[in-house]
Amino acid sequence: MNGKILIVGAGAIGGFYGALLARAGAEVSVVCRSDYDYVSRHGFQIDSHELGCWQFRPAQVLRQACEYQDSADYLILCSKVVAGIDRVNLIRAGLTAETAIAFIQNGVDIESELLAAFPDRVLISGLAYICCNRVAPGHIKHLAYGKLTLGALTPDDAGLSQRLRDLCAAGGGDCEISRDIVASRWQKCVWNAPFNPLSVLSGGLATQAILQSQEGFVRDIMHEICRIAAASGHPLPYDTVELNIERTRHMPPYKTSMLLDFEQGRPMETEAILGNAVRAAQRLNLECPRLQSLYALMRLRELQISQS
Amino acid sequence: MNGKILIVGAGAIGGFYGALLARAGAEVSVVCRSDYDYVSRHGFQIDSHELGCWQFRPAQVLRQACEYQDSADYLILCSKVVAGIDRVNLIRAGLTAETAIAFIQNGVDIESELLAAFPDRVLISGLAYICCNRVAPGHIKHLAYGKLTLGALTPDDAGLSQRLRDLCAAGGGDCEISRDIVASRWQKCVWNAPFNPLSVLSGGLATQAILQSQEGFVRDIMHEICRIAAASGHPLPYDTVELNIERTRHMPPYKTSMLLDFEQGRPMETEAILGNAVRAAQRLNLECPRLQSLYALMRLRELQISQS
C-alpha cells in the first residue's frame, strides 16, 4: 500500500506531482475546477524531456474536496495563493482524522492561516522548483527542473514528510527534506520576487531578457529578500544571490507563472510573494525600497486591470 | 514690432505657446513634421476653457528649420527629449547671428548639449506646467494650467528672457522668470518622476487613480528627487512634495505625456526624466532606490516594446 493522496488544485504543479506520485504506485485523486470536464474523461498527459511522457489517470476526478469518497493519507494543496481563494475552506471537507496536509505553493508567510485552522494535524510545507506549464486542458509540459522541497511545520511529523519524499522519489521526482522550510521559502522568494513582477511590469519579457538587461537591479532586489530572511531568523547561504543568477542564466528563456497568470487574466500571487515580504520587512523595521516599488507597481497594475 | 519667432517641434506644447505668442502680435512660424500637411493648409485650432478658442495661422509652416526664409529673434525648441532626436542639428539651420535660443522641454540635465554647441548665444531654458494634448492634426486641447517658467542659462541675456515673458503674457499666458531655472527643472521633475512612469507601468492609470492608490510611494519618489536636487546645489522649497500632491489631487484625472507617447507608440522621455536623475544621484553618491527601480522597469518596458 503506497497510500492515498488527494491533490486539491490540479493545475500544472498539482497535475505534475500527482502524476509522479501515481507513477510511484500511490492512489491519486484530484480536485480540479477549470479542466474538470477534460480531465475526468481523459486524465492528464505529461510531457517531460527529463522524465519521459506518460498518461496519468487519477483514481477520482472531483470538482470539490467534499466529493472525495475515501480517506486520504495526504491532502496536497496546490492552488495559487491569491485573494479570493480561501485555502482553509478549499481543503477542510477533503480531510479525515488521519489525513496529513501538505501544500506546494509559492510565497512567504503563508503558513499561519493553515496552522491556525488545523492546529492538531501534521502540516507539510512544500516548494516546487520547477518550470512546468499547462499548455492545454490536462496537458502539462515539464520544461526544466522539478525539485520538490518538503518540510514539516510541526516538530514531530511521525515520519510523514519523509514518506511523502520517498514516494515522490520513487516516481522519478527529485525531492528533498528541508530542516528549515521557512528559510527555504525565503530562498525561493529570492528568485520569485524579482522575476515574477518584472516579467509582468515589463509587458511580457522572459527571464533571460530581464537578466541580460537589468542584472544589477535583479541582484539588488534579491539582496533585499536575503536581508529580510536574515532579520527574521532564517539567514540564507552567502552565495544565494549568485546561485540564483547563475541558475537563471542557464535556464531556457522562461515565462514566469505570474506572467502566465497575467496573460490569461487570472489573479496573480502579488500578496503571497511581494506583499508578505514587504510586510515582514515593516515588522522588522527594515528598509526594502525596491520590493516596495515592485509591490506598489503591481498593485497599480492590478488596479488598472480591475478597471478595464 | 513684436518680433519673429520660429517654433521647432510644433506639437501640443509648441503649437499652444506659438498660438499665444501669435496672439500677442509676434510673427510666429513653425517647423512641424507629422502634422505638416494639415497645419500648412489649416493652421492650428486651440480650444481652452480658460483662454477661449482661437485659430493660429503660422507665418510660415516648414518641414525643417533650414527652410526658414527669415531671421528669427527667438528660435523656441519644443520637441521631446528622446533618443534619436538630435536637438542641435534640429535647430542649427534655423538660426542667424541674432537669434536667441529658447527650449521648452521636460527633463533634468538637458542643457549641456545646447550650451556646448552654442556657447556664444543667449540660451533660455523653459518649462511648461500645462495639461494640453494634441487631439487631432493641428487641434490642441488645453485642459488646465499653462504656466511657462523661463530662465536664462547665460549670466547676461540682454533682457531677452524678460521680453519673451512679456510677449507670452501679452498673449494671455501665465509666464514667469525663474532666477534658478535649474532648480525649477528639478522641481518639475518632482511631479514627472513618479507620475509619468507610473502611468505607463500601471498599464494606463490616470494621475488621480495613482495618487489615490499609492500616495505613500508617490511621496517617497518625490523625496528622492528633492534630495538629489539639494545635493546638486539646488535645494527646493520645504513644501515642494506637499504642494505637488495637493496640486495633483485637485487636477482633473490626467493622462501623462509619457502615457500618451506610450499609447501612440512614440518614444518616451525615460532618459531625460529618470535616467538623468539617476545618473545625477550616482555622481553625487546618493541612494535613490525607487527612482532606480522605475528607471530599470521603464528600460525593460522599452526593451519589450522594441522586441514586439
UniProtKB/TrEMBL annotation, chains A, B:
Span of domain Ketopantoate reductase C-terminal: 180-301
Chemical reaction(s) catalysed: (R)-pantoate + NADP(+) = 2-dehydropantoate + NADPH + H(+)
Pathway stated in the Swiss-Prot or TrEMBL entry: Cofactor biosynthesis; (R)-pantothenate biosynthesis; (R)-pantoate from 3-methyl-2-oxobutanoate: step 2/2
Gene3D superfamilies from the UniProt entry: N-(1-d-carboxylethyl)-l-norvaline Dehydrogenase, domain 2, NAD(P)-binding Rossmann-like Domain
Any GO MF annotation of the entry: 2-dehydropantoate 2-reductase activity
Keywords in alphabetical order: NADP, Oxidoreductase, Pantothenate biosynthesis
EC number(s) from the headed UniProt entry: 1.1.1.169
Pfam families according to UniProt: ApbA, ApbA_C
Sequence ranges assigned to domain Ketopantoate reductase N-terminal in this UniProt record: 5-153
Function: Catalyzes the NADPH-dependent reduction of ketopantoate into pantoic acid.
Family statement drawn from the similarity comment of this UniProt entry: Belongs to the ketopantoate reductase family.
PANTHER family in the record: 2-DEHYDROPANTOATE 2-REDUCTASE, PROBABLE 2-DEHYDROPANTOATE 2-REDUCTASE
Protein name according to UniProt: 2-dehydropantoate 2-reductase
Organism of origin: Methylomonas aurea
